[in-house]
From TrEMBL:
Function according to Swiss-Prot or TrEMBL: Bifunctional enzyme that catalyzes the epimerization of the S- and R-forms of NAD(P)HX and the dehydration of the S-form of NAD(P)HX at the expense of ADP, which is converted to AMP. This allows the repair of both epimers of NAD(P)HX, a damaged form of NAD(P)H that is a result of enzymatic or heat-dependent hydration.
Subunit structure and binding partners: Homotetramer.
Catalyzed reaction equations: (6S)-NADHX + ADP = AMP + phosphate + NADH + H(+); (6R)-NADHX = (6S)-NADHX; (6S)-NADPHX + ADP = AMP + phosphate + NADPH + H(+); (6R)-NADPHX = (6S)-NADPHX
Organism: Echinicola vietnamensis (strain DSM 17526 / LMG 23754 / KMM 6221)
Domain YjeF N-terminal: 10-215
Cofactor note: Binds 1 potassium ion per subunit.
Gene name in the database record: nnrD
EC number: 4.2.1.136, 5.1.99.6
InterPro entries membership: Carbohydrate_kinase_pred_CS, CARKD, Nnr, Ribokinase-like, YjeF_N_dom, YjeF_N_dom_sf
Name by which UniProt lists this protein: Bifunctional NAD(P)H-hydrate repair enzyme
């Protein structure tokens, strides 16, 4: 599991690591460059024409080291020097001196930036790193604007795109990277959806700083990796029966919206639930029975919306419940949700319309507890807590909400965040833009509910559910791209187990 460390801690981390290992800062920079080049070789051909744009700081030093290493590997490299080279850092100056004489390195004046045309296939951005604390200006701004205007050119940012602060929201302009290759750990601001158009696809490469050392700088924020998930999965005996894999109940649906709870139920089955039951309005019974014969169905006394018939359901016989998809927000449904939350005491996932009801009827928040997992998207979340100026503020409020109500808060989106009452916050590394489709959230509800029912416990259930949901989305979209729909994600869930090597 990768720590997410603030930019203000990086300098001390690097200094302490260099001291402990008895290496130079240049050696650590060389490690970073080698790691970047290993990644680059896997993704770009030697016949690509690569322009590496280097500033005067340590990020520029990384870029110069990368240029030297890639040139020696046979890449067609040209270096562009941006900014005041007289003020270059010591390691940047050293890497400038180490450039081979035959490797072209051009110092860019303001006039050059304004008029030069770049004939490149790939841009590597190493102008400014995590030390940026104000909007770009001067040559750096002009160069970023110039590079952002280049079409049909892949842009790769070294550690962080130029202009993007490490811990705050962007003010002004920044380089719009297609890919960001971050060293050792992702920077906090790379998790913000406002920055998605600047970060592109995020890759994290190791540079030799182990997790044990980095824990000294922990800020209780973590970036999930496949190895973190595989070890959280339970192993079941060959003698296990369907009851051992959990009895789950999916509650939701209303006239015209039965599909939502149906997808949650199928997702629960594909995730491994032994027994799945739907509780739906009477109008949904035939729909569920005909389209998903593997589940049982309980009918509400309400024809088009959920109503509570106290004592009729025996809900506490279920190991976990997912509630909310497609249930609407009528007065009857509000009464139903309050009665249900009052009666059911087990692990639960609260999603979609159930969250909107909580937002409009705040007294129902009193029913939340350590066994409750809320899964809002950004708009649903802001209905709960009020308007947020930016994602950093949202993440802070997510932690506050989780702590105040002793529940788990899953804030869905790119790099979905998971906030726990103890103050820890996890960020997902799986998923892509092709999952932005109706019903994807209902699939997540079913997956987390399934893991809860299988006995994973709250923390493992939510981490495994969020990660594998994103992974299934990646698998489903490999050949469908923007044609991916929610049921495609469901069908890819079994392949996510195969990819994680989980039996």
């Amino acid at each position: 599991m990768l720590e997410i460390i603030s930019g203000s801690s990086v300098k001390k981390l690097d200094t302490d690591f260099i001291t402990e290992k008895g290496i130079t800062s240049h050696r650590l920079m060389e490690n970073a460059a080698l790691a970047f080049c290993d990644w680059f070789e896997e993704n770009y051909h030697r016949n690509d024409k690569v322009g590496i744009f280097c500033g005067p700081g340590n990020n520029g030093g990384d870029g110069l080291a990368i240029a030297r290493l890639l040139w020696r590997k046979g890449y067609d490299i040209i270096v562009f020097l941006v900014g005041d080279t007289e003020k270059a850092s010591a390691d940047c100056r050293l890497n400038r001196e180490l450039l081979p004489d035959k490797l072209p390195a051009i110092s860019m004046s303001s006039d050059d930036i304004a008029h030069m045309e770049f004939d490149l296939n790939v841009v590597v951005d190493a102008m400014l790193g995590i030390g940026v604390n104000r909007p770009l200006a001067g040559d750096f701004l002009n160069m970023v604007v110039k590079l952002n205007d280049l079409s049909n050119v892949r842009k790769v940012a070294v550690d962080i795109p130029t202009g993007l602060p490490a811990d705050e929201c962007l003010q002004g302009e920044a380089l719009k990277a297609d890919v960001t290759v971050s060293f050792q750990y992702p920077k906090f601001s790379l998790m913000f959806p406002e920055h998605a158009g600047y970060v592109g696809v995020l890759h994290v490469v190791g540079i030799g700083i182990g997790n044990k050392f980095m824990r000294q700088f922990t800020e209780s924020k973590y970036y999930l990796q496949p190895s973190d998930i595989s070890k959280r999965h339970l192993n079941f005996s060959r003698f296990a029966h369907k009851g051992d894999f959990g009895r789950v109940l999916l509650v939701g649906g209303s006239y015209g919206s039965i599909g939502a709870v149906r997808m949650s139920a199928e997702a629960a089955l594909r995730t491994g639930s032994g027994l799945a039951t739907c509780f739906v309005p009477a109008c949904g019974v035939d729909v569920i029975q005909a389209s998903l014969p593997e589940v049982q169905v309980i009918s509400s006394s309400g024809e088009k919306r959920l109503c509570w018939d106290e004592g009729d359901m025996g809900v506490n016989r279920f190991d976990a419940v997912g509630i909310g998809p497609g249930m609407g927000g009528s007065a009857e449904t509000v009464t139903f949700l309050e009665s249900f939350l009052n009666v059911y005491k087990g692990p639960k996932v609260i999603d979609a319309d159930a969250i909107n009801i909580l937002s409009n009827h705040k007294k129902l928040l009193n029913y939340l507890d350590k066994d409750a997992i809320l899964t809002p998207h950004i708009k649903e979340f802001e209905r709960l807590v009020g308007h947020c100026e930016n994602h950093k503020q949202r993440l802070g409020k997510a932690l506050e909400f989780s702590s105040e109500h002793s529940c788990v808060l899953v804030l869905k989106g790119a790099h979905t965040s998971i906030s726990f009452p103890d103050g820890t916050q996890y960020f997902n590394s799986t998923g892509n833009k092709h999952m932005a489709t109706g019903g994807a959230g209902d699939v997540l509800t079913g997956m987390i509910t399934s893991f809860l029912g299988q006995g994973y416990g709250t923390k493992n259930a939510v981490l495994c559910g969020v990660f594998q949901h994103g992974l299934a989305g990646e698998i489903a979209s490999e050949d469908k791209k923007r044609g991916t729909i929610a049921t495609d994600i469901i069908q890819a869930i079994p392949k996510s187990y195969l990819q994680l090597n989980v039996d």
